[in-house]
Write a structure and sequence with these properties.
The complex is a heterotrimer of chains A (85), B (104) and C (177). Chain A is mainly α. Helix content of chain A is 84%, strand content 0%. The longest helix of chain A has 26 residues. Chain A is flat, with a radius of gyration of 15 Å. The N and C termini of chain A lie far apart (48 Å). Chain C is α/β, with parallel strands linked by helices and 177 residues long. Chain C folds into two domains: 68 residues; 101 residues, D-Maltodextrin-Binding Protein, domain 2. Helices cover 58% and strands 18% of the residues of chain C. Chains in contact: A-B, A-C, B-C.
Chain lengths: 85, 104, 177
């Protein structure tokens, strides 16, 4: 029951973080919001897996943690090198 | 409800409060560099604390080992991503005058 | 209850990614859309589809979009902030307006605007960075600096005068370098 409340408060935090993606004046603000949002999604998957009691759901969290990182690094490098990838 | 469950619940509450401070930090500061500094550090600490609470709830098991793997991956990758964003902003020429937005 | 919030978030980001003018912004919106939709698959009880969506949507399609964006032309704008602290609120407002007008000018000509705010000297920017236009805000007007080969500068000045009206006088200087 406690973990349900923790999941709901994490959802509120993720919505507040996604507000920075919509508002952000520069493109780097949007990337920062994407970083925070993906961290919140990983936490939500772990708590969801605790609620359901299924350990195989944690594999998705590992995949997220590796691949979201690659996406953010690629977009940041793309802007830094002025369109050369 | 054993003593480990209570410790785990307290740690998860602390982690959510820390993550909340990190999310509040990206709206409070006017300057981009102070925003990215605050959010990266506080958010990583909140992540580690919540995962530690989950490990305390589940005890010594296969589940906790996988959660430990996620913590190790996230602790390595999240500061790297933040550093990459800040480096991209700095090398692209996004420079703000010193002291203009200080403390706001 | 929980899944309704995330389904609404998917709709919001889908509309934003279609409506946004800047293509880099749309790539970020699509990345977060695929992240949220993958979490929705997980809530519906299909973790295998969620893994496939995370791999394809978050990484592979981002790389494909960035390779496609390589063909797009960049238009780099340096905005020099020179205001004193007393007129901070007023100058902030005009800065936003001028940047919006320049971005709409770029979207008409299918250029990707890249706005950089800086507080360095003009000579320093000219020496060290690659730029297309430097916008310098003065007390009663705006000055545009650019290279002589830049044929867009003349039409940009006419566009700014047409949109701003008589509030600010816009002048431009072409370097001979």
């Amino acid at each position: 029951m406690f973990v349900n409340y923790a999941l709901i408060s994490l959802i509120i935090l993720a919505l507040a973080g996604s507000l920075r993606i919509v508002l952000g004046p520069t493109i780097w603000d949007r990337l920062l919001g994407l970083n925070i949002f993906s961290a919140k999604i990983i936490m939500m998957i772990v708590l969801f897996s605790v609620i359901m009691g299924k350990p195989y759901l944690l594999d998705i969290a590992i995949v997220y943690a590796l691949l979201g990182f690659i996406g953010i690094i690629l977009i940041a490098r793309f802007i830094e090198w002025r369109g050369k990838i | 409800m054993s003593i480990f469950d209570i410790i785990g619940y307290i740690l998860i509450t602390c982690g959510i409060i820390l993550s909340g401070i990190g999310v509040y930090g990206i709206f409070r500061f006017k300057n981009f560099y102070s925003r990215i500094l605050v959010s990266s550090k506080v958010d990583t600490v909140g992540f580690m604390t919540i995962m530690l609470g989950v490990m305390f709830i589940n005890g010594l098991s296969f589940f906790s080992l996988k959660v430990l793997l996620i913590v190790i991956i996230a602790v390595i990758t999240t500061p790297l991503a933040t550093h990459s964003i800040a480096r991209s902003a700095y090398l692209s020429g996004y420079k703000i005058k010193k002291g203009k937005y200080y403390g706001n | 209850m929980v899944i309704n919030i995330f389904l609404m978030l998917i709709i919001v980001f889908a509309i934003l990614s279609i409506q946004s003018n800047s293509l880099r912004r749309a790539v970020i919106y699509l990345g977060i859309l695929s992240l949220v939709s993958s979490f929705c698959y997980l809530l519906y009880g299909s973790p295998d589809v969620a893994i496939a969506q995370a791999v394809i949507g978050s990484t592979l399609s981002t790389i494909l979009y960035l390779v496609a964006l390589k063909k797009y032309k960049l238009f780099t704008i340096y905005y020099v902030l020179q205001n004193t602290d007393t007129e901070e609120l007023d100058s902030d407002n005009t800065e936003r307006k001028v940047i919006d007008i320049i971005e709409s000018f770029c979207f008409e000509r299918e250029l990707e605007p890249d706005v950089v705010h800086t507080s360095e000297n003009l000579e320093n920017i000219e020496a060290h960075y690659q730029y297309d236009v430097i916008v310098l805000q003065k007390e009663r007007g705006i000055c545009l600096y650019g290279n002589k080969e830049n044929y867009l500068l003349d039409s940009l000045q006419k566009h700014l005068v047409k949109k701003l009206g008589n509030k600010l006088n816009v002048s431009y200087v072409q370097n001979t370098v």
